[in-house]
Amino acid sequence: MPLTLKPCATLLIVISASLLFAGCEVGPKFNKPSAPAIAGYIPNQPSATSSTPNVTAGEAQQFAPGDIPGEWWQLFHSQALNDLIEQSLKNNPDIQAAQAALLVARENVLAQRGAYYPSVSGGFSAARQKTSAEISPVPSQNILNFSLFTPQVSVSYVPDVFGLNRRTMESLRAEQEQARFALAATHITLSSNVAMGAIQEASLRAQIAATNQLIEINTNMLQILRNQFAQGYVARIDVAAQESQLALIVATLPPLLKQLAQQRDLLAALAGSFPNQELPERFELANLQLPQELPLSLPSQLVEQRPDVRQAEENLHSASAQIGVARANRFPSFLLTGDAGTMTLHFAQLFSQGGFWDLGASITQPIYEGGTLLHRERAAQDAYTQAAAQYKSAVLTAFQNVADTLNALDQDADALKAAAAADDAALVTLKLSQDQFQSGYINYLGLLNAEQTYQQAVINLVQAQANRYSDTAALFQALGGGWWNRPDIPKS
Fold first, then answer.
1. 296: part of which helix (H) or strand (E)?
2. Secondary structure element (H or E) that encloses residue 2, with its range
3. Which among 128, 222, 227, 159 is positioned nearest to 20, based on CA atoms?
4. Which strands form 145-157's sheet, in the order they lie side by side?
5. d(CA 385, CA 391)
6. If you placed Cys at 408, which of 65, 209, 231, 471 could pair as Cys (CB 3.0 to 4.6 Å)?
7. Pairing state of beta strands 62-65 and 293-296?
8. 429-477 pLDDT tens trace
9. Contacts with 163 (C-beta within 8 Å, 6 or more apart), sequence order
10. How many CB atoms lie within 10 A of CB 67?
11. Which residues contact 367 (CB under 8 A, 6 or more apart)?
12. CB 380 within 8 A of CB 326
């Protein structure tokens, strides 16, 4: 009997008819949280910061609504910084790990998509048998020794009647989006860390230069005091005090050098290099330009731009879908099966006679599982409540970060103005004190106080300049870093 397509066609009709039942989807429908209805980040938000003319990083900064560029670090106009960040984005293993995690999530979605389609498998078996002569021979030819060849095709299909597969797919797609936003967050964190690390290196270099200058000044003063002591104009205690002052300043240099070396090691690691591979880039505060036009996103846009908030949102979405998964597992499941093939005693007649087929359907309804399915659904609902709280926390943290950086930038500008004024005044005082000391109008104690004041003023000025650069980079990070404008981060 030849094998025909009729059984297969019948099975396909049954499977197609079962799709009519796949319109129910249990579990809650996810609704995207709305953005907070607030008008600003901080009370009395300034439109601009104060300025300090003729001082590095002393320009006024303007805040205006705008979009964050994908390469925001270029606003510092430092080619060395641009090169190091681009190198880091290419070579950093954290970026590579985040990219691989996104591919894993995508493949999981594609793997689960297969559950929408029937499963088809083919099989072939061959056996040699001998029946007992005491019973009737099994084959119709009445032979005791025979071979049996059985090729067949099996088809099975699980209709998604209550949306189990659709909810699972929904959860996996949300996890894929989480991985995409995790990649964006890694980009932002890495670029911000490199920028702040470069600024810290520049600050340390400026502090080391200032310390070396102070060492030179105090060394010269010590030589003057020793000459005056030799001539009997000053007491030995004055020389000892200056020696102590010089030693204290010299002692501040090794910690700064250690911090600089460690900062270089950190930048090398961020760039995907080993510490012994010296970076060609060197950073100085004088080679950085302070961005003066700062694009400030609207508060309603922040939740869309911050990847950590978007991750929390997709985590909430996945938790919502998991409620549907847990609930669907408490409903009946259906299975449709079909087999078609031949069974013959001769290999040459595999597809010419001995045809067989079967169609089957089954339904399984959980009746008693000791409360397992019920408590799994309740656990999924509690997980959704947890995810909702985590989302709210992420939103609050995002707004706090922006508010903190805006307040910092406003105060940084005023702090720089005060530090620059203190530095100018301290330098004038030091020069006058040196002249008066050499002329005999003041004692050494007055000169020592002037030196200490100038030393602290120089360090304070350098730190105030670095703070303006660092907090500007922090603002771009807090606003989302412009990842949506970068071509190397997938849009969906």
1. strand 293-296
2. none
3. 159
4. 119-130, 145-157, 333-342, 355-364
5. 10
6. 471
7. parallel
8. 999 998 888 887 887 778 878 888 888 898 999 999 999 999 999 999 9
9. 22, 24, 25, 26, 27, 324, 328
10. 13
11. none
12. yes
Model pTM? 0.86
Sequential DSSP letters for 12-50? HHHHHHHGGGTT---SPPP-PPPPP--S-SSTT--SB--
**CB neighbours (10 Å) of residue 163?**
22
Query: Is residue 316 a contact partner of residue 388, using CB atoms and an 8 Å limit?
Result: yes
Residue keyed to tokens 């994908």: 70
Query: How far apart are alpha carbons 166 and 109 in whole angstroms?
Result: 11
The tokens of 266 are what? 């950190």
65 has which bridge partners?
296
Residue 460: both structure tokens together? 């304070």
User: What is the Cα 258 distance to its own chain's centre?
Assistant: 30
- % of the chain surpassing 90 pLDDT: 66
CA distances from 379 to 38, 320, 323, 336, 385 (A): 34, 12, 9, 31, 10
How far is Cα 457 from Cα 102, in angstroms, rounded to an integer? 50
* DSSP state, residue 280: S
Secondary structure (3-state) at 88: helix
Q: How far, in Å, CA of 441 to CA of 420, rounded? A: 28
Q: Is the pLDDT of residue 12 over 60?
A: no
Q: Is the pLDDT of residue 175 over 90?
A: yes
Give the mean pLDDT of the chain: 89
Please give the structure tokens belonging to residue 192: 């911000």
| Beta strand segments in 354-412, E | 355-364
Question: Are 424 and 453 contacting, i.e. CB atoms less than 8 angstroms apart?
Answer: no
